[in-house]
Amino acid sequence: MLQASGLCKRYGGREILAGLDLTLAPGTVTVVLGENGAGKTTLLRVLAGDAPLDAGTVHVQGISLTIDGSTFSHNTAIYSAGAIYDHPANGTVVTNSLFEYNSADQSGAIHNFGSALVVRNSSFVGNHANSDGGAICDWSHTLDISGSRFVNNSSGTYGGAVSCSGRWLKIDASVFTGNTARNHGGAIDDHQLEGTTITNSVFTA
After folding, report:
1. Residue 96 needs a FRET pair 20 to 30 A away by CA distance; which of 84, 118, 132, 146 works?
2. Does the predicted model carry a pTM greater than 0.90?
3. Which uninterrupted H or E stretch holds 71?
4. CB-neighbour burial class of residue 54 (10 A; exposed 0-12, middle 13-18, buried 19+)
């Protein structure tokens, strides 16, 4: 069962989705019709977790795919992910959240194996991993980080802030400061198979 409630999505000043409610039951077929630019692709991207919402929620089998306005502090895991160990089929969106001083063997804050991980306007401070990804270790198809801060995260091997081995990495308007790794990738250890795009971002020691 997929349930979407109050979905709102804007691009610039244009509202593409305006308070959309939708329920898709298992075993059913739903057709989305509309003119070019009506928002069909945007709706599918939102439901798949590939695009962040401006408002609203998406639940699959009662589980939310959106983490908004949350704080994860001083959590510890023996193996994967001090805060979130995540492998949903439909992707995860994290917005306006704080991850501070979390630690684990792999990925201090988030370890993701889903189809996509989108991080917006969030902060990662002082997280540590013994191996990959001081803040984030990502193996998804798409990792999209925008408007976020990564400060003083560290890794015992690769990717002081982020270690990624999926297909696409996109970073926009983010700040990386004081992140360290023992081997390589003080800020980012990147093994994307298709491509990486970094725009309007700052990297400092």
Report:
1. 132
2. no
3. strand 71-73
4. middle
**CA-based torsion, 6, 7, 13, 14: positive or negative:** negative
Task: Give me the average pLDDT of each 10-residue run along the chain (205 residues).
Answer: 83 86 86 87 76 74 70 86 72 87 91 83 95 89 91 94 88 96 91 85 93
CA distance 168 to 190: 10
Give the residue from 61, 177, 80, 192 showing the smallest Cα distance to 130.
80
Whole-angstrom distance, CA of residue 38 vs CA of residue 15: 10
The β-bridge partners of 180 are 154
For residue 16, what are the CA distances in angstroms to 10, 24, 40? 5, 20, 9
42: three-class secondary structure by DSSP: helix
Strand ranges across the sheet with 14-24 = 14-24, 2-11, 55-60, 63-64
How many other CB atoms are there within 10 angstroms of residue 57's CB atom?
A: 14
Is 63 within 8 Å of 89 (Cβ atoms)?
no
DSSP type of residue 37: T
How far apart are alpha carbons 139 and 165 in whole angstroms?
Answer: 5
